[in-house]
Amino acid sequence: MAAPLTLLLIVAVTIRAVLFRSSLAELISARVEVVSPLNAWKRVVEGLALLDLGVSPYSGDVFHETPLMIYLFHFTVDYAEIVFIVSAYFVDCLSCFLKPLDRAKMAINSNYLKSDLLFNFPGCCELISWFITIIVCLCFCKFHFLCTCKYTDVRLCHQIADGITALALYLSIQTYNKDVFRKQKYALESDRYSADCLELLRSPKEMFYIPLKVAMFYLLNPFTILSCVAKSTCGLNNAIIALFIFCTLKGSALLSGILLALATYQSIYPLTLFAPALLFFLQRLYIPVNLRRSSFWFFTLQYAFMYVGSLVVITGLSFFLLGSWDFIPSVYGFIFSVPDLTPNIGLFWYFFAEMFEHFRLFFSCVFQINVFFYTIPLSIKLKEHPVFLIFMQIAIISIFKSYPTVGDVALYMAFLPAWSHLYRFLRNIFLVSCVLLACSALFPVLWHLWIYAGSANSNFYYAITLLFNFGQILLVADYFYAYLRREHHLTHGLYLKKKDGTEATLVLK
Amino acid sequence: MLILSSLLLFILLAAARDEFQEELVIRPLHSGDIYASFQFRTLWDTDFLQEGQKVSHYRLFPKSLGQVLSKFSVRELHISFTQGFWRTMQWGQPFIPSPPGAELWVWFHDTVSDVDGNWKELTNVLSGIFCASLNFIDLTNTVQPSASFKPLGLGNATDHRFLRYATLPREIVCTENLTPWKKLLPCGSKAGLAVLMKSEKLFHSSFHSQAVHIRPICQDEQCSSKAWELRQTLNVVFDLHTSGQGKKEWSLFKMFSRTLTEACPLASSSKVYVDITDNPELFELSPATPLLGQAVVLGDRRTYSVYDLIMPTSSMVLSPCALGDMLRPLLHAERYVAGFGLQTGEIHTVIYNNHPYRAFPVLLMDSVPWYLQLYIHTLTVTSKSRDNKPSYIHYQPAKDRHRPHLLEMLIQLPPHSMTEVTVQFERALLKWTEYTPDPNHGFYVGSSVVSALVPSMVAMRTNFTQDQPLFSSFVPVKEESSYFVRVYTEPLLVNLPTPDFSMPYNVICLTCTVVAVGYGSFYNLLTRTFQVDEPSPPLSKRLANLIRRMRGVPLLT
């Protein structure tokens, strides 16, 4: 498994490095579909320039990254070489140190204890060893494409982020698949599945390549590549979310809480991932979701405390770094009140450009609530399937967030191979993929017609964003439907019969 | 009797305390145009800002302005309305520069606590006084320059918290602004030089600029007594080529369709200067005047024929001809927008130093509206194709819908060079109600201001004399070797992307439909369960069953 993944990483890094070197990089980084006011690299550089001028980056309305992010980049840009060398050495040493530890862990994995759950890093060693692979690939590329640009090493940062995301997703899906297979086995043994649904069951053979496919879907997705080449910080946010998923699936509640807090701090919306993570841990610890059980409340409070605690620490840290609370309105106020109407692939910009002034507040509440609105009903419906719930939540966030970019879309699309067994139940996958492909092609065309050629107007571009979002909604709803339907078939049998013995059709009632 | 005499005495005293001067300078320009500059100065040694003491007796000073000064604790007020653009390279430096549109800058007294509130009210009041749309000045186009606008009068306040500067580049100046401006003069337009101001002629010109400057100044060199100075200026450039049948001849009548007969009876001095520096032999003035005056203004020594209207002569009809060369302006700036499309762009400001061997620093001030998002990291300053790092940068980024960008830089201009300042910007899509009624016309960006102390070719007069001509005494000269110049560049016209203004209902409906599709499909899947579709029995069967149920007989299946 290692060889194809390494090959994939090398291919992905090479594609990105080539694009970084080409003249396309400039063009891509100005595309409104790829960068939004929240994550454009140009704005990060602007923030750094303002810091250098001695002006608070939040005093203007150009910079909307979080303080930790800007100080991270400040540090990376200023001490890029040192960071690079040190991190390479550090990782090297760590890996030498961790490899035997990893083996030892594997050995004792069989009598692996539940109490270990909170502070348990079984996967970390694995992740770190992969991390080395990325670094080696990057070193290789770095020597191949020596650049003189000041921000060269930031490109590495973005590539590393993409690599980490892919790896984290790869390992998460691997873990998830093992989990799924184990559960399927138990269910079969306890005879919970109906007799004629054998063809719905998943075999290890077909599941074997799914993690690799997930990593490939992320790394080679044109959306991710564009996002990375544009140096959008969306890639970093994706990496945080992917690491969060990884830590959750590996069962480390503390790390999961910290990373979820970090993701929330970065862009508020991942807040809704709290519910699936909590459900996953409860399921893993065999705690029933029962409001009258004290163990349920104990764990929930424990996890919430870890999450809120790290959120408070991170926010406090940024306050001390910056010396003021200016970033709160400038980052979170900006996300919620949508003052910047620069076109993007989302639903917000044109709607609020054309909004009647006295309804603005009402409609911004209505639109923002969409992200958070589905969390509770979905958690109730999917409480047995927290990983699918994570997928649904990420998809809903990327559809209904106020400044979406293609990088957000790429993150949830990476999960699609993990649901490849749902394929037979998808109703309009052909239509949806056509719509999404056509829209992706039409975005730049209509943008050009509106902004440069002047032969179209804003409605053309708006129509495409509308269609694109329509396609995404259909896609997500279709997968949701297919998932529910498969679950139904697993318990009720695949070939349903009517009372009179003829073949029945299944409807939602 | 006593009361009457004391009243008389008071009036006499008051008469001694204020004075009014008027002046007209006519300068034939190198391009063949005629530059006429009116200056009216009222001096009054009262104190508007004194606590508890209300100034209520006005003679020459306009009461409307006096009340404004004391009510808003204004220390210095400069307002100008300009139609047209001053072409520095063809016309040389104007006596008092002004940007196209309206410009207002005010220094408030440092006792004012709510400067923004005062500023808001003041702009509204001035808007009424001058019949102009100054009420469109709000926080989104007001800046506080840190170095470019220093007080021109007494006191060297440096705390720019009390300074407000705003321009309205789109303001159109016309008769309705001229009439209230003329009313501020003691003689109105009834007598004196102001009779020449007929709007049908003044606005039929290449350039028209009227201004009001109020400031406290010293009355003598020792500054033992202070006075308030109100200076009203009006500058016109007539294009006589188009109206003069190609001859380089001009006369007061041709320009203004009036002639001068007498001075304003209230004026203590009333003079007409005709600039004959460029080619004295070629000039033929009639009536001829024996009086010749010299003045050093803007680094140039110039000779004038002086006509004094107080000493009554025959009615003035000036009709000279011919023109000579002009001094090439040492400092000159221009600006344009580069780039194509409606997404990004680049502002280029080009500053020329035409001095053959002296380098000097200039202060460049740019105030850019918030809807052009400037990227300060793209700022480049190049002179002679080399990077010229500004020694001082003051940058205040814009806040959407609250505050414009303010960029001030101190740039050293090498001798005989062209310095180019570029900065990239991104155009914002606005809310549909934020566009002007003609959105595809574009949005104006005010002129950038270049202020500099330009090395002078001739020695400037630093000593203070009362009988100096008005046009050479506006900006106080601190040193002999240089003089202060302010150059305004062209305002910019920038197109922004526009939404479709006829679509609000459609957009609301369509977007909400997509959201509703999302909601509907999720709601469907969340609330319903899968069931086998049993076709409902036919109507006859259902009726039969109904009857059977009433009868208590087993139902049909």
UniProtKB/TrEMBL annotation, chain A:
GO terms for biological process: attachment of GPI anchor to protein; GPI anchor biosynthetic process. GO terms for cellular component: GPI-anchor transamidase complex. It comes from the Eukaryota. The chain crosses the membrane at residues 79-98, 119-145, 208-229, 241-262, 268-287, 299-325, 331-352, 359-376, 388-416, 428-453, 459-481. It holds the Pfam family PIG-U. Keywords: Endoplasmic reticulum, GPI-anchor biosynthesis, Membrane, Signal, Transmembrane, Transmembrane helix. Its main location: endoplasmic reticulum. InterPro entries: PIG-U. It is found in: Endoplasmic reticulum membrane. Residues 1-25 form the signal peptide. It is a multi-pass membrane protein. Pathway: Glycolipid biosynthesis; glycosylphosphatidylinositol-anchor biosynthesis. Belongs to the PIGU family. PANTHER family: GPI TRANSAMIDASE COMPONENT PIG-U, PHOSPHATIDYLINOSITOL GLYCAN ANCHOR BIOSYNTHESIS CLASS U PROTEIN. This is Phosphatidylinositol glycan anchor biosynthesis, class U. It comes from Cyprinus carpio (Common carp). The lineage of its organism: Eukaryota, Metazoa, Chordata, Craniata, Vertebrata.
TrEMBL record, chain B:
Residues 1-16 form the signal peptide. GO terms for cellular component: GPI-anchor transamidase complex. Coiled coil: none annotated. The keyword Signal applies. InterPro entries: PIG-T. It comes from Cyprinus carpio (Common carp). It holds the Pfam family Gpi16. This is Phosphatidylinositol glycan anchor biosynthesis, class T. Keywords: Signal. GO terms for biological process: attachment of GPI anchor to protein. It comes from the Eukaryota. PANTHER family: GPI TRANSAMIDASE COMPONENT PIG-T, GPI TRANSAMIDASE COMPONENT PIG-T-RELATED.
